Here is the input.
Amino acid sequence: MTIVGIVRERREPEDRVAASADVVKRYRAQGLEVLVEKGAGAGSAISDQAFAQAGAELAPDAASVFARADVILKVQGPTAQEIGRLRAGQLLVGMLDPYNRRKEVAALAERGVTAFALELLPRTTRAQAMDVLSSQANLAGYRAVVEAMAAYARVVPMMMTAAGTIPAAKVFVVGAGVAGLQAIATARRMGAVVTATDVRPQAKGEIESLGAKFVGYIPEDAATAGGYARPLTPEEQKRQAEVLADHIRSQDIVITTAQVPGRKAPRIVTKEMVRSMKPGSVLLDVAVESGGNIEGSRADKVVSVEGVRILGPRNLPSRVAPTASALYARNLFNFLALLFPEGSEGPRIDTEDELIRSTLLTHEGRVVHPDFQGGNGA
Here is the structure.
């Protein structure tokens, strides 16, 4: 019988786990055994007892899981020590960050591991149920607003009191992908006056559908086939900067979410824009780990610029780990249903299936994904 293994995440900061008790029950119902390292769910408020009651077997340590499991599920890519514990023919599924960890991809191939990077899933209707980027970005957008408003020392919603009226805070969201749209919706629910910008043609309607006002301009053919924004030309960047500079100076909170997998995040907010804001204003850079949208933002630091604070929190989904893990676990379960169709006695690696082909990184001792072949040890 196939054994699915779950280990505690070793990369910091990370409190998520790749399975929930509910999903363990689903694996068991499909005839899969589940082996969970003790303490793996502690950061997500999932006890060992909850996993055991759901039907999982508890393992004393990670080494035991790697030694016995046929499939290893992870949130983040394996550490060097974890790669050393993987064996030929073993399946690895998770968010493996292959664009930034090409040496690890090559190492997985050398170990003979069949690895799937779920962030490479195409943006199609069929892939939505296993779309880890969207499920986690949605939570990042929510958490970004919560943290920015916690750092903002004034009231956010409009208040009418006997002593006078307090105006609502002005929140500006840069980037209207999954994280940005959730940030808009959350800020609106908190009572802020919300504006937002994006360079993709469809973004204007999406922003306005949430009750926010669109700010900026949209270049021609600004979206790629994958739905992301293409790099802007110098002239387009100049025009965008002019619009944003004029708008940002009047904002109380700015949240930036613009990033594209495989590329450095675009620098959108300059130091001059930050300095133009009034003291007490707050900026939060969701893209800080991929280079940052805000000049001067630093990972896990609060940078003060003439009374304006720039926040650069890493791994926002991990800050709501119980919810993030529940969604991520369902994404993984839906993907594994492709690899282990009902009635199968082992994995079925069907490279004719677009979802499997697009996420398959390494197989049978080779780097098989075309984006990572050559120059990466393959």
The two ends are 32 Å apart (CA to CA). The chain has twelve helices and 17 strands. The chain has a mean pLDDT of 94.
